[in-house]
Amino acid sequence: MDSLLELFGECKEPRRGHGLRHPQPFVLACAAVALLMGAGGYEAFEDECKKLSQRQLRALGCRQNPITKLYHPPSDSTFFRVINRLDAVDFDLRIGQWMLAQEISILQALAIDGKCLRGSGRTDGKALQLLSAVSHRLRLTVAQEPIQEKSNEIPAIKPLLQKLPKAALEGSLITADALHCQQESSRFVTQELGADYLWGLKGNQSGILERAQIKLPKAFFFRRIRFRLEQRARALGALAAAASQSQPGRCWLVRLLAIGGRVAGAKKAPQGQSHRRV
Prior knowledge:
The chain is of the alpha/beta class. The protein has three domains: about 1-85, no CATH class; about 90-95 and about 105-215, Nucleotidyltransferase, domain 5 (2-Layer Sandwich), CATH 3.30.420; about 220-265, no CATH class. The protein contains eleven helices and seven strands. Strand 4 (about 175), helix 9 (about 185-190) and strand 5 (about 195-200) form a beta-alpha-beta unit. Helix 3 (about 40-50) packs across helix 5 (about 75-85). The model is unreliable at about 245-278 (pLDDT under 50).
């Protein structure tokens, strides 16, 4: 915990020094503790920190109130001001480096995936998309890269991985979905980083897929899909049987699409019979 407090102290303080009740490292430490306690917003941060004892607040770096001689947690507005004025890129990089310093082996296997940031809706209604590198073993996000507008994840993978120590990535395994099954991404991972890759393969790379289907057994491609379809068919059959027993006068007809194996809805029932969608 001491090393994390030192990291918070290294972050630039954007607020003016006059009249500050709570130092920035203390506010960030309280936010980190509140997150670990399950808080998900500024008001929740305040509520969780109110549960801390005087000894715990002092250990996190709280200043004593000269009048009451007590230690007080930050308010929700203080959390808002401090967190929103941070340099997000610098802070994200510092946290990633701190996690790497705790255990460098977390880079032995990384998963690359892009997600929309929850609660990041902007004036145009579009949410911020981030490409993240997540440790397979500890499930920790060690680096993030914003995906530019009118773009996708492909050009963002290179600056994302460049944020991590090159020496630590050598010999590691990097996994990603079929979108990253590209020659340039593969060349960058193997030749520039000295790592290995494991990409998903779908119809977006028809040439590679065709060659793989020639060299690999057919069961390698279709066994999992067939198993899932059989599972869904059995489940839907049991559901229809249970429905017919509970409501004998009704006809439950469902249609299973082979492509994707999803339930699309119910077939049109014969005239005079009712149906319900599943």
